[in-house]
Structure formats: structure tokens, C-alpha cells
Amino acid sequence: MIANSVKKEAINNWSDEFVDLSIYAQNKLYKKCGPFLLGIEILNLPRTEDYRPIFVCYPLWKVDIKQCLDESIFIQEISNSKGFQFNIPYTKHINFFQEAVGCTRKQVPVLGHRQISINQLFELFNKQFSQTLIKASPVGQAKLSEAKLLGALYVDDVAAIEHISTEILKISKTWPPNLFEWKYGKLDVWLQNLQSGISNGDEFLKRIEANKQEKKIATLKSSELTG
Predict the structure, then answer these.
(1) What tens digit of pLDDT does each residue of 98-124 get?
(2) Closest Cα to residue 139, out of 128, 127, 153?
(3) pTM (2 decimals)?
């Protein structure tokens, strides 16, 4: 079993390299960005003494911060220079660390930006749609689509809201009901609730600000989200 001190050293090394992120937990580095939490998580691999860095994105508009952190909008695994996922032994962490940091910076440059445009986030979200698991998952596509729509709402980009709403209507026609309804219920009700959320933008913003004031979230560093 890997000692906690070794795991702590690993997360501190990651924190030293990504100074715009804050340590949230022993294996989590986050920052606030508009209605999102962005960051790196150190994923302990089962039945091994290895870890894998992943890029994560969480919502900040749920009822409370627990619900926000219960389920990510997406995770993105970081690939090494050969295109494979990292499996880094804690005991050899220093041997692979710099490569992992370089690949993370290249694949997720927004982690080092103190100002992030909504279009940069849209690029990240759109990239996820090409992932095999998302292609096969109406639920995954719905989460990403909702996040894009609410990101546009946060920066008050009316043209983007209209464009993404049209995108959602189009893509939702391809979702088999049995693969969507187990999570979100009837599609027409889900779509109506999305539009209701857009119409009640003030409530949406209030929930985000309330969650940002939660004790641990309030201490995190931030990047500005711009239109």
C-alpha cells in the first residue's frame, strides 16, 4: 500500500506545476471558471500502485455543492507522447511526471489561463462528442449539450444560446428513449426544463454564486470566463 505521504508529495508536485489550480483534496486540484469547476484529478488505478491524471469539469449550478460534485460533466484522460493513457507508479512518479505535465499542458491549455473565453470551453466540450463512450451515450451528449447552453447563458451570449438550442433539438432526435429516459425522464419535459432555465437566468446565477461561497469552494483560485 502506498503511504499517504507519497500520495501527498505527488499532488504537491502537480500543484507546483499548475499554479492556477488549488488543492481541493489529496487527489484533486480545481479552479472556478464561471459556472464550472475545472481541474486535475489523480485517479488511483484499482489493484495497482499506479495513478492516472485526468482533466475534469463539474457544474456549479446544481442545488448545492454536493450535487455539483456528485457527477462530472465529463472527464478527459491525458495521453502520453505515444497516445496511450498514463499509468504512473507512485514509486516512479518522478520518472514520468514531467512528461505527464507537458502532455497535460498541451492537451488542456485552459488550465494555465487566467482568462478563458466561452469559445475555448466550447472547443473542449465539442471535443468530447468524438469520444467513443459519448458517441454511444445520449446521457453523456445531454450533459455536454446542457453545459454548453448554460455556459452561453452565463456570459449572456444570445446568439450562442439560440444556436446551441437548435443543436440540442437536432441531436436529441437521435437519442433512443430507453437510453435517455432512465436518467432524465421524458425528452420533451427535459427540453422544456432547459428552456425554463434559460428564461430564469437570475435564479441560475444565484445558485452558482451560492455554491461558490461554500467554504472549500470559496478558497479556490479562479479564471474569468468571457464571452
Answers:
(1) 999 999 999 999 999 999 999 999 999
(2) 128
(3) 0.94
Query: What is the dihedral sign for C-alpha 145, 142, 63, 197?
Result: positive
- CA atoms lying within 13 Å on the CB side of residue 221: 17
Stated length of the chain = 227
Give mean pLDDT, residues 148-172: 96
Closest CA to 10 of 55, 53, 57, 56: 53
Between CA 192 and CA 60 the distance in angstroms is 21
Residue pair 118/152 in contact by the 8 Å Cβ criterion = yes
- d(CA 55, CA 108) in angstroms, rounded, equals 8
d(CA 162, CA 190): 17
| Rounded Cα distance, 41 and 54, in Å | 5
Measure the CA–CA gap between 189 and 195, rounded to whole angstroms.
10
Contact 226, 155 (CB under 8 A): yes
